[in-house]
Specification:
mainly alpha; 17 helices; about 65% helix; globular; disordered C terminus
Length: about 375
């Protein structure tokens, strides 16, 4: 993983292109720095979700690792888009979406193939195929939360939330970064209307679908944090934010690891305590990179889990569900431990031999584009979102 952003020297042509963008887009610390702690934070979130689904250990609130993923995703991808706008004077949408597809689709296609194979082996192909197609084309939240099933892929609704957000957000960001006042105003109005639609009650057949978008709200908080960080023209450290980030990490780890179930309304959605804690941890890592939280989260095993978190997230649920419901050898806890070990092996193999060739192609497409090593689009990282 690269240790820093790639730099390019400005010339008259690049200055001319940049002139069409607002001075709101600045080259703050997010434009120059790689933060290994963010990979570690993603790794903790992935492990919390896996342990929660396995039903092992004290992580009874581990499902909120998804909210951490959302906040990280919004921050990192928005950071990349803002830096591209600052450096090149534009956000190249086709390149962005192509690179994102090359990063996300190979492992998702592999997961769907494995699910179809498992369904065929258990005589459930006709039941599994429609839902699998919905997931493959990022319609999983609409499919599953309108009463249909996607066997072994229940966890993939989160992927749909992220992709729906990124279908819209980069376009709005182009407007928000424009020097044209009318275009900026239109983008602001469109963003406000979009958020208002999520908060407005939906008809009964799709009211649960609305709930999935509310759950994804930390993506917006992470994106706003990226905007704030990009406004810092100097890559100065903030000890105060580092201290706050240290405390936020301790509370976040407590939420993820305590053996008592906390009210879901405290932990998810627009007022997600987990998402807000993640923002403070993010800010502490980015603006105080020598803080205790940043150092702890840079621990190599956590960083490894973070860089493989997309595969870990995708593969773990079908593996655990097959072992839980279709294998009757040994006690369930033993099968879950085997499932976690199998997930780690599959995720590593997928990363090395399936995803890597597409990542190299993606990198060639983005050779002249600003890159954020922590980003799920990057050569050694994974989302979750992803998301």
């Amino acid at each position: 993983m690269q240790a820093a952003w790639q730099h390019s020297h400005s010339n008259s042509a690049s200055l001319s292109r940049t002139s069409s963008y607002s001075s709101l887009v600045t080259a703050g610390p997010s434009a120059r720095t790689y933060w290994p702690g963010l990979d570690g934070l993603r790794g903790i979130a992935a492990l919390a979700v896996i342990i929660f689904h396995a039903g092992l250990g004290p992580a009874v609130n581990g499902y909120v690792g998804v909210d951490v993923f959302f906040a990280l995703s919004g921050f990192l991808i928005t950071s990349l888009l803002l830096v591209e706008a600052q450096r090149h004077g534009r956000i190249r949408l086709l390149r962005f979406y192509t690179r994102r597809m090359l990063r996300l689709w190979p492992a998702l296609v592999a997961t769907c193939i494995l699910v179809i194979a498992a369904a065929a082996a258990t005589g459930q192909l006709s039941e599994a195929a429609p839902g699998t197609l919905a997931v493959l084309f990022y319609l999983g939240n609409w499919w599953m939360y309108t009463g249909r099933s996607a066997p072994l892929l229940d966890h993939t609704w989160t992927l749909a939330i992220e992709e729906h957000f990124y279908a819209v957000w980069p376009v709005l960001l182009i407007g928000l970064c424009s020097r044209r006042r009318a275009l900026r105003a239109f983008a602001v109005i469109a963003a406000v209307v979009g958020v208002a639609l999520i908060f407005t009650p939906w008809p009964e057949p799709i009211t649960d679908v609305r709930g999935t978008y509310l759950r994804g709200f930390p993506i917006i908080w992470g994106s706003l944090l990226a905007w704030v960080v990009s406004r810092r023209r100097e890559a100065t450290s903030s000890r105060a934010l580092g201290t706050i980030g240290n405390g936020a990490l301790l509370v976040l780890l407590g939420v993820l690891l305590i053996p008592w179930t906390l009210p879901e309304r405290w932990l998810t959605g627009p007022s997600s305590g987990t998402g807000i804690l993640s923002l403070f941890v993010l800010a502490g890592i980015v603006l105080s990179p020598r803080s205790a939280a940043a150092t702890l989260l840079a621990w190599p095993p956590l960083r490894w889990a973070g860089t493989r978190s997309y595969g870990l997230y995708l593969y773990h649920f079908p593996v655990l569900q097959v072992l839980r419901h279709h294998v009757q050898v040994g006690p369930e806890w033993f099968r879950m431990v085997v499932g976690i070990m199998a997930t780690i092996i599959i995720a590593e193999a997928s990363f090395r031999w399936l995803e890597a060739p597409f990542l190299r192609l993606k990198d060639r497409l983005g050779r002249h584009t600003a890159s954020v090593p922590n980003l799920p689009l990057g050569p050694r990282t994974a989302t979750d979102s992803r998301g």
